[in-house]
Amino acid sequence: LSAQSTGARVRTYQSVSRPFNSSIDGRKFPVLVKSRAASTLAPRRVRLVFPICAKVGKGDAPPNFTLKNQDGRNVSLSQFKGKPVVVYFYPADETPGCTKEACAFRDSYEKFKKAGAEVVGISADDPNSHKAFAKKYRLPFTLLSDDGNKVRKDWGVPSDLFGTLPGRQTYVLDKKGVVQLVYNNQFQPEKHIDETLKVLSSI
């Protein structure tokens, strides 16, 4: 039976590809709304799902890595054994959210030192970008260059916005290199510092 013979109303939505301005780090990401016919008698709901789980979880010993820091020197995760270490993955240097997060770690750096912990930031930016970023904002901790996001993938750090934006995720490892916290919050970067310090005070 056709829509005309049954008297059913049918609305046709045209395919539209348009950018929207994300609230995440001030970037724009394309959204594609696909063409479809939908009866007004049977509306559909669309639910957006953002992954929040990761391969490396609490109680795990994450895979080791060796990456170059902002001075071009190799740094391995294994060299931090014997002290707590905070490893935070962030999307990119100089973006608003990432700058806010890095400066929050900087402002609380004495608290991390008092807890005996090292702070390590990781993104896909090259060492030169990290060096300029660290110098501009007087960052006293290590920034590592994860070329091709290999370590991010090995650790299973989830992405956001349908995989278009590298996720923001923080790990706290104890003295034995075992994860005691996995914290993911793309929208409130400062909360990574608060949650991290809470865990460090208890291990």
From TrEMBL:
A cellular component term, taken from the record's GO annotations: chloroplast thylakoid lumen
Record-annotated membrane-spanning stretches: none
GO MF term list: thioredoxin peroxidase activity
Top-rank taxon, per record: Eukaryota
Keyword Transit peptide listed: yes
PROSITE patterns named in the record: THIOREDOXIN_2
Residue ranges annotated for the Thioredoxin domain, each copy included: 56-203
Pfam families reported in the protein's UniProt record: AhpC-TSA (PF00578)
Gene Ontology annotations of biological process type: cell redox homeostasis; cellular response to oxidative stress
Reaction equation(s) it catalyzes: a hydroperoxide + [thioredoxin]-dithiol = an alcohol + [thioredoxin]-disulfide + H2O
Primary localization: plastid
First-tier enzyme category under EC: oxidoreductase
Enzyme Commission numbers on file: 1.11.1.24
Annotated keywords: Antioxidant, Chloroplast, Disulfide bond, Oxidoreductase, Peroxidase, Plastid, Redox-active center, Thylakoid, Transit peptide
Location in the cell: Plastid, Chloroplast thylakoid lumen
Role played: Thiol-specific peroxidase that catalyzes the reduction of hydrogen peroxide and organic hydroperoxides to water and alcohols, respectively. Plays a role in cell protection against oxidative stress by detoxifying peroxides.
Family: Belongs to the peroxiredoxin family. BCP/PrxQ subfamily.
UniProt-recorded name of the protein: thioredoxin-dependent peroxiredoxin
Species this protein is from: Eleocharis dulcis
